[in-house]
DNA sequence: AGTGAAACGACCGTAGA
DNA sequence: TCTACGGTCGTTTCACT
């Protein structure tokens, strides 16, 4: 189960209804057996297996464990909007190295970057902002949006 | 493989090093066999399976398929900051019903809500902003941050 | 909470339509 | 790209520690 063959070109893949159904099944339960999925979509176990292989090799889909930060004791989350000078790709790289940051995206708009942080508590968040983030070369100003309640989350993916 | 027994109380669970290692293995590959994981963490297959069962039942972890919107032809993503009046929980509920929105969070700061949208192209994004989002009762102003490049994404989860 | 063993079911490779 | 099938390996259950 390697990552070999990822479609780094990023050309969209045309999916038929059957593959979409297979993905739906695995979005509900990533460990569902290929045989079970086959019954649900009307295909043999081997055919399902081949399609899943193709989809993961092409980088359309990944089957992974997703954790709940709250349950792991990370009670404080926030999105940080960053206005920057210089090369934002470079800054994004440096932000990505910070373990408390789980999400970094380069944007167009009144922020140049958005970064999501996962912290144990407010103290860790303050520490992170004051030492790790605002001190970075190229960071002009930041704006913090502390999460009060997560209402919806659907799993997409697209780091490349 | 139901969702039964989710720990909706949200009390943090204390995890030992072994469970953390198991989660790490599954974050890398959600379909890795329990036997393999057992070899990696020094536990029998049955013990690993019991722990994984517990972790998923407690709501600490979920094993799911995560898709890449780009590969599925959704070439335009954006974060939308929303300033609102009235009950933001109510507004969040209505935003969550919009299929193009995959992420809604209530925040403290200069936005009341953040919503992430996944669109096929710019036209769909414009349409969505003008018709579905800005027209909602309670939406005062919006600010859109179009994604240029996703740099880092780590899978967390916490909708309740 | 963990191991070990036996029965069962899933997965994988290959052959063939 | 699919089905069919046999060998191998993973999973499940249970008795035991």
From TrEMBL, chains A, B:
Protein name: AsnC family transcriptional regulator
Protein species of origin: Agromyces rhizosphaerae
InterPro entries in UniProt: ArsR-like_HTH, AsnC-type_HTH_dom, Dimeric_a/b-barrel, Tscrpt_reg_AsnC-like, Tscrpt_reg_AsnC/Lrp_C, Tscrpt_reg_HTH_AsnC-type_CS, WH-like_DNA-bd_sf, WH_DNA-bd_sf
Entry annotated with the keyword Glycosyltransferase: no
Taxonomic lineage from the root: Bacteria, Bacillati, Actinomycetota, Actinomycetes, Micrococcales
Gene Ontology MF terms in the entry: sequence-specific DNA binding
Keyword Transit peptide: no
One GO term of the biological process aspect: response to amino acid
Domain HTH asnC-type: from-to ranges: 15-75
Highest taxon of the lineage: Bacteria
Signal peptide from the UniProt entry: none
């Amino acid at each position: 189960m390697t990552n070999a063959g990822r479609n780094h070109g990023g050309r969209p893949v045309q999916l038929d209804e059957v593959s979409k159904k297979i993905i739906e099944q695995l979005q509900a339960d990533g460990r569902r057996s290929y045989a079970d999925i086959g019954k649900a979509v009307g295909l043999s176990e081997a055919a399902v297996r081949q399609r899943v292989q193709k989809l993961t090799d092409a980088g359309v889909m990944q089957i992974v464990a997703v954790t709940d930060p709250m349950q792991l004791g990370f009670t404080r989350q926030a999105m940080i909007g960053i206005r920057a000078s210089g090369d934002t790709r470079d800054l994004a790289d440096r932000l990505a190295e910070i373990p408390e940051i789980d999400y970094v995206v380069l944007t167009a708009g009144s922020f140049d970057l958005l970064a999501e942080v996962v912290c144990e508590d407010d103290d860790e968040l303050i520490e992170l902002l004051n030492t790790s983030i605002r001190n970075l070369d190229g960071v002009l100003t930041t704006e913090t949006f502390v999460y009060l309640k997560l209402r919806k989350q659907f799993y997409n993916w697209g780091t490349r």
